[in-house]
Structures are given as C-alpha cells and as structure tokens.
Queue: 2 jobs
Job 1
Amino acid sequence: MIKAIDLFKSFGPQKALNGFELNLKKGEILGLHGPNGSGKSTFMKIIAGGILKYDGEVLIDKMSPSLITKNKISYLSDNNLFPDGNTVQETIEFYRHFYMDFDMDHFFQILQKLNVNLSMKTKLIELSKGIRQLIRIALCMARDVELYLLDEPLAGIDPIAVEVVIDTLVDSMHEKSTMIIATHEVAIIERILTRVIFIKDGHSCGDYDCEEVRLNEGLSIESKYKEIFSHA
Ligand SMILES: Nc1ncnc2c1ncn2[C@@H]1O[C@H](COP(=O)(O)OP(=O)(O)OP(=O)(O)O)[C@@H](O)[C@H]1O
C-alpha cells in the first residue's frame, strides 16, 4: 500500500528524513515511534501530500502523492487545521462538502461511542482541548478511505477515554484499509498494532511484526522501544 524508498527531506540545514524506508502492506496497522524530532510528522505530511519537495520515492498504491492519492487518505495532523471560531455544525458541514466519502451517520456513531454529547451550535473554541481532539478523531475516522494517517491522535485525551478511542479506531476503520499511527503513547496503542517501525534521526532503526516481537522475543512493543532507544 505504501512504499518509501531512500527518503530524504531537509529544512535548511536540518535533516528531518535521512534515508527513511518503508514497505507497508494493505490492512496493516503500523505504529511509527521515535523520540521528539525523529521525523515522524514529516513522513506523515509527505504521505498526506502536504510536503511536495523531497528526495527519494514515495508510492501510495503505486502512485506518487497527488490529488488522486489525497482522496484515498484521511489525515489527522498534529496541528489543528480547523478555524476554532467555527461551530460544530459548520465544521461537520465543511467535511461533508469537502469529502465525498464522509459518512455523517458514522461520524455521530463514533461520537456516541466516545461519549461526546454536543450542541451543534457550540463553537470549537468553547470546547476543551480533549473534546476538540475527540471531534477531530471522529471526523477523520468517519471517512471511508484506504489509508488513515493519525499523527499524535491521543494528545490531550484522558486515560479512560483513551482506551475507548483506541477501540474506536479499529472498529471505525474500514475493512482492508491501512492505518499509520505516529505516537509517543507506545504502551497504550500497542495492543492494536500489527507492525511497528522505530525511527531516529530520520531513518528506521527497527521494523518489526508485532506478533513476532511478542511471541519470539517475549517483549511488549514498549519494552522493544526501550531496548532500542536506550542503546541508541
Ligand atoms: N517546517 C519546518 N521547518 C524547519 N524544521 C522543521 C520543520 N518541520 C520539521 N522540522 C524539523 O525536522 C525534524 C523532524 O521533525 P518532525 O516534526 O518530523 O519530528 P517528530 O518525530 O514528528 O517530532 P515530535 O515527536 O516532537 O512531534 C525536527 O528537527 C524539526 O525541528
């Protein structure tokens, strides 16, 4: 579904990606984990079509990032892209008009699972950070796409709600879709991952099948993370 070959991206003298490689099959749920500044968001932005200048090759379903691939992707960025002065209703309307694949019924079902009850007239700015993030997750997952890209989806969400969010991600994801989740919350997210890539200084320093790590090495993904990064 996604191939990254020898991917380089610099911002001035700063190398954000430095020979990053990935080969991800359809249906996988990939955890992309690494220290601050390791290149996770930069990689997600390239896949999402938000960064167009880079060296190396990126293929999404055999195509370079373009308008066609953008339509196959639902992207939850690490920045808030919605005007906070808009109401919940206006935000939903924006999604409905912008994305043909947005399913409003599915959106409300997800909100219900997340236990979010809202007045449509409430402005986003009037809501807490965590509730705004839950709405953004629901908007992202209510699209029927082949690839979900979630950058720090759990930021600002309380520990009880986080477990519901994680279940909701898997339940909402369409069959045969693929998901990439960049997060520091390795211990919390690992139960839904099929694959994990550890990234440091813009390149992969470990690419594992999660089941193999658990069964063959007897390690959790969090322990594997600590093993790799405490020696890095
Ligand atoms: N627009 C930009 N301009 C300049 N430097 C940037 C820009 N975007 C990213 N960088 C730099 O590229 C490197 C990788 O950043 P990136 O945001 O991809 O890391 P990250 O792994 O997502 O970090 P974090 O976990 O802290 O969110 C960092 O050194 C960062 O400062």
Job 2
Amino acid sequence: MSYIELTQVSKQYRRRGQATEALHLIDLNIEKGKFVSIIGPSGCGKSSLLRIIGGLVKQDCGEVLINGRSPLEAQKQKQFGFVPQSPALFPWRTVLQNMQLPFEVNRQAAEQPPQREELVKLLEMVGLGEFTDAYAKELSGGMQQRVGIARAFGSGAPILLMDEPFSALDEITREKMSYLLLNIWESYQKTVVFVTHNIREAVLLSDEVIIMSPRPGRIKARIGIELPRPRSAELEESEQFQQYMADIRAYLRQDWQV
Ligand SMILES: Nc1ncnc2c1ncn2[C@@H]1O[C@H](COP(=O)(O)OP(=O)(O)OP(=O)(O)O)[C@@H](O)[C@H]1O
C-alpha cells in the first residue's frame, strides 16, 4: 500500500445549477518521503486534487487513503501541513512566534513543540536566521513565504501540501526560493505534493512529475525524475535536466488550443 493512494477519484462542482467536472477518475499513488509535483493547464483541477488529498474537499466518488486512513482522520492526526500561495502569518507576532503557531493551534498533540534552536535552524536554512525576533509585518512577501515554508517543515506534519507557493513572487525571488525549498526538503525529506505551473521548478525539486490534462482533470503522464541528489543549480545546465523539461513541455503543448 502506498502512503497516499487515490483510486478512481472524481469531483464535480455545482454552482447556480451548473455542474463543472473538475477531476475524472484519478488514480494516483505517492510513496512516503517523495517530492511529487503536479503540473497542468489552468483550471485542470490541480488545487482540487491537493484539497481532496488534504481532506479540505470531499470527492464525489472513489477512495482516498492516507497511510491507510481517510483524509479527515489524517487531518485530525495533524498529518498535513499546508503551504498556500500566500502565507497566513500573524503580522504582529514575531517570526519565531509564527513558527510556533502550529503547536499552539494543536494543543492536544502529544508531540512537544520543537526547541527554539530547532526553529532557528530552519529559519537559517531559508536565510532568515537574523529575523527570528522581527515582526512578520516587517518582512517582504518573499521573506514571509520563506517563513511559511520553514514553518511547514518545523510543524511535525509528515505530509506537506503546497499550492503554487511561489506564484505571487517575482521571477528572481522565485528562482531563489526553489533552491531554498530544495535544500530544506533534502534535509528533512517529508512527503511533499507540490502544485506548480513552472516546469523548471517541477524538474529541479521532484522525484516525480504528474502531468494533468485540461478539465476535467485526468492524469496524462507521470515522469520519474532520476536526477542525482543532492541537486544544485549547475544541474539545470545538464542535458538530462533540459530533456526532462522538453518532455514535460511537449506533453503540455499537446493540449494547447491556439
Ligand atoms: N468551489 C468551487 N465551486 C465551483 N467550481 C469550482 C470550485 N473550485 C474549483 N472549481 C472549478 O473547478 C475547476 C478546477 O479548479 P482548480 O482550482 O482545482 O484548478 P487548478 O488546476 O488548480 O487551476 P489554476 O491552475 O488556475 O489554479 C475549475 O474550472 C474551477 O473553476
């Protein structure tokens, strides 16, 4: 049995009497400790898929198992950390206090909150060690997103669900963020499901890239990224890296309607 397992999952939304079929018979399995990206055209159901895995949205049919349990049970057991497009930080709390938030929200958790040093180490990994005691409101958008990522890795949740976490950032910050995420993931190796529109990011970070077709979302291809780890910026220049990018682009172009 896989760590995350979806069998024949479909989802339809209804709004003002109109039905939208977002996902159609999705079969997907993800192994523990893997970094898996989901890429596909706008509106193909990537966020829906992520939200179904995390128990935020219920599928209409099919089965979702997280380590053998339903997403809602997994959610109750604090198995998920969410990293949305913009991080939900409390502006008047310090960076460290924001990092401690998952443990305050989850008071019944048996797990002890990490020591300050552990959280500071995570902040250092995202280049924010010296901002530990700064107020969140003093940070730029990119810095806040870095806190959101560090917080997810420090939260104790074994599965991180990331929905286009870099989409609000400028291109240069975005590129830098992808290396920070690579570094922190290679140190912690949590299971990550990462929704993105960015092919470079998907190849750089992933063990596997799932390519979806336009709505209703189906899985069009799964590409295992067999690049050595730890990975670095130089790897992007390699022929193998460029070939993965070209392969993914070719799949996505099949659905272009020009
Ligand atoms: N709550 C909802 N009510 C009605 N329709 C919805 C709802 N959520 C999503 N949809 C529709 O379902 C389809 C899939 O949406 P979803 O957000 O999952 O796609 P996506 O691939 O993440 O899109 P994007 O890349 O643009 O963020 C879209 O057509 C969207 O309009």
